[in-house]
């Protein structure tokens, strides 16, 4: 019976939670922008350009919208929408608020124009040029309704003329804004693709071509990262240095292709038994390294012994038992304050003792600390 892919559940859930946190941060940033809009209106109020009632209404509308969107994000109801970020809905809410204020206080039309284009920049982060153009058209339509309503109520001709001039300016500049925004979006997409390719190249540079395991460069980086985590968490960390015993005989008695097959088969066998926290790679030639996070010396020695026994029992398609593959393993535990290469050197010393004492065995670093002398 096939085992269900349970290990994938946690990474997928973690990724969804990360994206939701990112959406929430964007919403909080947009909310701060709305509060800034209210601050600007308050400045206009001090100059007599907006009355107290309209300013109070604006504050109430912004508060209601922020509360409504907060509920959607906190309860995760936003995930039921085609765009979980709700960028377009937030844009439309801001436009409706600013149109109402511009209608009630015509002298704030300058604020409308400035904050409209900033809101469009927010939308540009999530939507393509076509959607951006649609949102801009909705904003123009809302402002046009404002003008029509002024005509219907026979308001001041000067106010209507200024509104028409502002509408004309927005109608002329908005297509250029959409064009530039779409171009920036394409550049952003191109940069993301280049970044992904660079990450792929970097990952390939850390991999051994023959076995697919980490190479020496990748191992050194992984050991340094494991050391930093061990220092931060206080959890144990151990290093296993693994050497394939008398590997040269495979190349001498058969050929180099046979030796390559043995290396690949060995690497696959080890990787098949790794824990999720372990890291494995080829240090060079027939020498491999296993990084055992959250593992003290005794635990790492036990793991190494199980690995030695498993490898000794594998059939590598050799013609006789004398050619069965065995390994020697040296184990050392990281000591706080030392460099990871010092730990590695102690594991290498333990490996040397294993080879000197007959191979096909596990030896641990038993040298005392300097402060124990």
Describe this structure in words.
The chain is an alpha+beta fold and 373 residues long. It folds into two domains: 12-202, no CATH class; 216-367, Alpha-Beta Plaits. Helix content is 65%, strand content 8%. It is built from eleven helices and five strands. It has helices spanning 9-46, 52-74, 87-104, 109-124, 129-152, 157-205, 216-233, 248-253, 256-272, 297-312, 340-356, and strands spanning 237-244, 279-284, 287-293, 327-333, 362-364. It has a five-stranded mixed beta sheet with strand order 2-3-1-4-5, sandwiched between helices. Helix 1 (9-46) packs antiparallel against helix 2 and helix 4 packs parallel to helix 6 (157-205). The longest helix has 49 residues, at 157-205.
Element layout with pairings:
Layout: H1 9-46, H2 52-74, H3 87-104, H4 109-124, H5 129-152, H6 157-205, H7 216-233, E1 237-244, H8 248-253, H9 256-272, E2 279-284, E3 287-293, H10 297-312, E4 327-333, H11 340-356, E5 362-364
Helix pairs in contact: 1-2, 2-3, 3-4, 3-5, 4-5, 4-6, 5-6
């Amino acid at each position: 019976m096939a085992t269900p892919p349970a290990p994938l559940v946690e990474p997928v859930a973690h990724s969804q939670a990360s994206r939701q946190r990112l959406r929430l941060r964007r919403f909080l940033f947009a909310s701060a922008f709305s509060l800034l809009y209210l601050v600007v209106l308050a400045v206009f109020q001090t100059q007599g350009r907006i009355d107290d009632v309209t300013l109070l209404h604006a504050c109430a509308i912004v508060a209601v919208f922020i509360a409504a969107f907060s509920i959607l994000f906190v309860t995760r109801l936003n995930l039921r929408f085609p765009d979980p970020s709700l960028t377009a809905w937030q844009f439309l809410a801001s436009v409706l608020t600013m149109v109402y204020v511009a209608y009630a206080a015509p002298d704030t039309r300058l604020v409308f124009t400035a904050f409209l284009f900033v809101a469009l920049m927010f939308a540009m982060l999530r939507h393509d040029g076509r959607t951006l153009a649609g949102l801009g058209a909705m904003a123009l339509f809302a402002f046009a309704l404002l003008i029509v309503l002024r005509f219907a109520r026979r308001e001041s001709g000067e106010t209507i003329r200024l509104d028409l001039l502002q509408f004309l300016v927005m109608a002329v500049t908005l297509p250029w804004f959409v064009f530039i925004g779409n171009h920036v979006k394409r550049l952003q997409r191109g940069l993301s693709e280049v970044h992904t390719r660079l990450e792929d190249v970097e990952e390939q540079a850390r991999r051994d071509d023959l076995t697919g395991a980490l190479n020496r460069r990748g191992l050194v980086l992984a050991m340094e990262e494991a050391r930093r985590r061990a220092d931060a968490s206080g959890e144990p960390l151990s290093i296993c240095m693994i050497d394939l015993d008398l590997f040269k005989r495979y190349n001498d008695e058969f050929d180099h292709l046979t030796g390559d097959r043995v290396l690949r088969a060995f690497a696959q066998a080890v990787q098949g038994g790794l824990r999720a926290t372990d890291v494995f790679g080829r240090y060079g030639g027939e020498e491999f390294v296993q990084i055992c996070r959250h593992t003290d010396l005794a635990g790492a020695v036990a793991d190494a012994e199980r690995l030695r026994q498993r490898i000794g029992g594998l059939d590598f398609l050799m013609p006789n038992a004398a050619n069965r593959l065995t390994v020697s393993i040296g184990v050392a535990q990281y000591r706080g304050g030392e460099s990871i290469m010092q730990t590695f050197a102690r594991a290498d010393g333990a490996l040397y003792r294993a080879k000197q004492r007959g191979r096909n065995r596990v030896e641990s670093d038993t040298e005392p600390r300097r402060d124990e002398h």
